Amino acid sequence: MFFERVEGGNRAILIHVDFPESDHREDPAEFEELVVSAGADPATFIKASRTTPHPKYFVGTGKMEEIRQAVKTYEADVVLFNHALSPSQERNIEAGIECRVLDRTGLILDIFAQRARTHEGKLQVELAQLQYQSTRLVRGWTHLERQKGGIGLRGPGETQLETDRRLLRARISTIHKKLNKVEKQRNQSRRARDRSDTPTVSLVGYTNAGKSTLFNYLTDSGVYAADQLFATLDPTLRRLAIPDMGDIVLADTVGFIRHLPHKLVEAFKATLQETAEADLLLHVVDCADEDRLGNIEQVENVLDEIGSSDIPRLEVFNKIDLLDDFEPAIERNDEGIPVRVWVSAKTGQGAALILAALTELLGDEVISKSISLSPAESGLRAALYEQNAVLSENYDEHGHVELEIRMQKKDFKQLLKRFNLPQERFGVARTKEFFE
């Protein structure tokens, strides 16, 4: 893009500042994982502690000198901060240490840019990058404040910086239009699934919790899965057969992280819509992570931000193969409803328990009931026998037949529609009461 700066190598100086009184403390270990996931080579890790950020440099002047010396010693190409920096702070730090500076948001955006595979994913990443860079044009391009001049470049007094901003706004507008088109296509697919009454289950969780590995094991898919942060960006949907109830749609989505940049949440709105519209969420948790409770809290925060906090969920505590002598199990609440399953997606331990829990939670999608049909409705009776849905039948003296049936609700609804019979009469109008 026109605002991009010349890239250097990957040798990086890592900076982390601890603010003991802050509610938004970052994790230095997770920061290192982010840096490695981005493909950088950490040369050294400089840590500091402050009560509040320095308004000009974020770190103190003494720490600035330490960073400057580290850049020279290690011949670093970039300095990475585990914090969100203001454009002026980035500009001031770069001027002081004479090296490129990237904050936590920029680092995450870089990882997203590397991971995006589909056209939609690339558009979403570019949108987030443009929105992020729009406030940073002045930082790297102060020479653009000069007005254009020269043959063929004279205009109505517009500076180069103003031109860049105008072009950037135009590109953002174009991407928004393209993403709106993608969102409409997704909505059409979602409405088609609603009409067929196919439940949608969405995998959510902290990044690197094992969602894609679990998705691959359950659906026998080849979705990219790796032991790194943000291995999955582009959503993938597959059909999954659930015992005793039929198919559901399982969606694999992008992982969440602490203080996920708001611009990323906005840019990935269409993707995250699969989560917001799901019938059930499988919240995958790395049970071997010492900070698993904090990770769960961060996922809950993002779900609340995208309007998914009220969707019922089943926790999947993954990676039990990393625990000592731990067997797969289902945990239930006081009412006997499954709330948590302990599994290993890597080895497949407990996968059957997930399917069993889904059968219970989505059991409303299987009907088992008695229905009464008149002689004129014998066509429906014959169709039910064709689908092996009839358990027993009895006739009365008026020729009416009482059928005991068991089948998928969606298939029963399709039969009712085929024979032009009202769903309300048989009590199968679409509802989510079983979740409430």
TrEMBL record:
Where is each Hflx-type G domain found? Answer: 199-370
- Mind listing the UniProt keywords for this protein, alphabetically? Cytoplasm, GTP-binding, Magnesium, Metal-binding, Nucleotide-binding
- The residues that the entry says bind GTP are 205-212, 230-234, 252-255, 318-321, 344-346
Q: What PROSITE patterns would the database entry show?
A: G_HFLX
Checking CDD domains in the record gives: HflX
Record field: transmembrane: none
Show the GO cellular component annotation of the record. Answer: cytoplasm
Q: Which cofactor does it need?
A: Mg(2+)
Q: Which residues hold Mg(2+)?
A: S212, T232
Cited InterPro entries: G_HFLX_dom, GTP-bd, GTP-bd_M, GTPase_HflX, GTPase_HflX_N, GTPase_HflX_N_sf, HflX_C, P-loop_NTPase
* One GO MF term: GTP binding
Q: Where in the cell is it found?
A: Cytoplasm
Database matches in Pfam families: GTP-bdg_M (PF16360), GTP-bdg_N (PF13167), HflX_C (PF19275), MMR_HSR1 (PF01926)
Write out the similarity annotation: Belongs to the TRAFAC class OBG-HflX-like GTPase superfamily. HflX GTPase family.
Subunit relationships: Monomer. Associates with the 50S ribosomal subunit.
PANTHER family with a match to the protein in the record: GTP-BINDING PROTEIN 6-RELATED, GTP-BINDING PROTEIN HFLX
Query: What function does the entry list?
Result: GTPase that associates with the 50S ribosomal subunit and may have a role during protein synthesis or ribosome biogenesis.
Q: What is this protein called?
A: GTPase HflX
Q: Which organism is it from?
A: Reinekea blandensis MED297
